[in-house]
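Re: export button greyed out
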Amino acid sequence: MTGDVLLHVDRVTKAFHGLVALSEVSLQVRPGQIKGLIGPNGAGKTTLFNLIACCLAPTEGDVVFSGRSLVGLPPHRAAELGIARTFQNVQVFPGMTVLEHVLVGLHRQAQPGLLGAALQSPGVRRTELRLREQAEALLARVELTSWAEAPVETLPFGLLRRVELARALAVQPRLLLLDEPGSGLNPTEKQGMSQLIRSLRDEGITVFLVEHDMTMVMGLADEVAVLDHGALLCEGPPGEVQRDPRVVAAYLGEGEDA
Amino acid sequence: MRQGSWGFRWLAAAAAVAAVGVWDLVQPGGLARLTGGLVTTDLLIRTGLFTVVLVGLNLLMGYAGQASLGQAAFYGMGAFASAIFTVRARVLGIPPAVAEAWWWPWVVMVLAALAVGAFALVVGLAILRLRGHYLAMATLGLGVIVYIVLRENLGMPHLNLTGGFDGIVGVPRLRVGGVELWPVQVYYFVVWAAALASVALGLNVVHSAVGRALRALHGSELAAESVGVDVGSLKAKIFALSAALASVAGSLYAHFQAAVVPDTFGFVPSLELVVMSAVGGMSSIWGAPLGALTVLLLEQLLRTHVLGLVPAVSGELEPVVFGAMLVVIMMYWPGGLVSSRRTQAPVWTSR
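Workaround output, generated via the alternate export path:
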């Protein structure tokens, strides 16, 4: 079984100054699957993502990626191990072009020493040209080629999610964490995003996504986990989860939180 | 953004700098006469020295987005290192054969830059975790501490290494072989060689993956980290580079002024550097020489033309004017003279 697990969240508890955001959550993501994570607002979904991306450390429990514990690693190490992410609130670099965003994603390949950069060794230039080609290929992948040289501020919101995706793909991830990839998109854009995510899975990238749009997540995911009030409510194929009375109750009860 | 795109502009700048220098050398004082005493060799040398400091400061503030209100401290550390290790060589037990050799001040300059850079790296790893005005406060504190340590003789008054309030006089001129790099018209070339080299270095950094990572972490540390940029280490490294550049400028200053006093490196000079950076354009390497020149010219005008009209005020007016300039620039002209931002970032992205 362990050989068949890419990500293992093992009895993770996360408390912020006594406020328990996650309580003994265990779940697994298997290689090659699209796994969905749903739950009412404040259920702890983003907290769980931040734990996996090493932006937070669990209070208790362990997060194991590809056989190694992520606990205590700084966030940039997660990228090195093959975990890339997008953000619920789009995180872009103001003043930089779309192409530059992807080039930042290729940062690890640039292996830029400060001294090498300052003295502009010939190797640095060659690498730069190679990275540019790679970045252009990634932009083509998410259909943003025509926006390559555009400053990111000039893009409509729907395309910013693609910029984030291209930047994340530049890391050459084995696990892609998508935090509400459909949020803020119109129905057509959502469909395009779903297709894109599926094609990434078909290329061998494992996808773990948080999504509020039930149609989108149920259509995409091979398996869905439900969080409620920081605890795992249930886990299984989309059809099963949708019919689960506990899930129905959790969502109907959402009004209480709001 | 391709490499080499700045090469032509740099060569043009170098040619202009050389032309001014040669003219000044052939016809000393001609420049000052032509500009009514405003542009002197002295002013151009100071412009060059501040250019070296500002290239580092702009990388740190304009690109990496990390405020430093204590940059003059590193400038002072370089200056005092050069002064102490040449003038006080005997107290330190450095043999005369070494201390009097022409190459010794150059060696001191390089070693001081490395030491100051290493010091900044260590300090930076700790304080660069702070953000916004906390970081500004920490660098401000660092600047004040260094100033006091210099003024208080490094806590070892019996050795009198820094000379306390009075500082150190008699710092020797730089030499190459037996040739002294003086008078001032000759020293101009030394300083501007360093200034142009630091501009080239800065442009190289900016147009590399490192420069990209710096701008990225400025925009979103979270996103930069998520693609594998080691944000903490990169910020500390750029802080170290900026400190090392300031140190080199300080050493060149010490050999130019021949005397160093702690007051040159206190809070007001740090503020002056920030104003220069803002005037020239923080997120631009070319903003460094332009900002330095503009502010120094304004100061000169203030001193020669305005202060004379108001006899009651003394030199204390300078910090007031700097502060006012900074406020006005930040409010109405955040890009400075050279604005590299292609577009003004709308509010929603800079949350």
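Residues 2-82+173-257 of chain A form a domain with the Rossmann fold fold (CATH 3.40.50.300). The button fix ships in the next patch.
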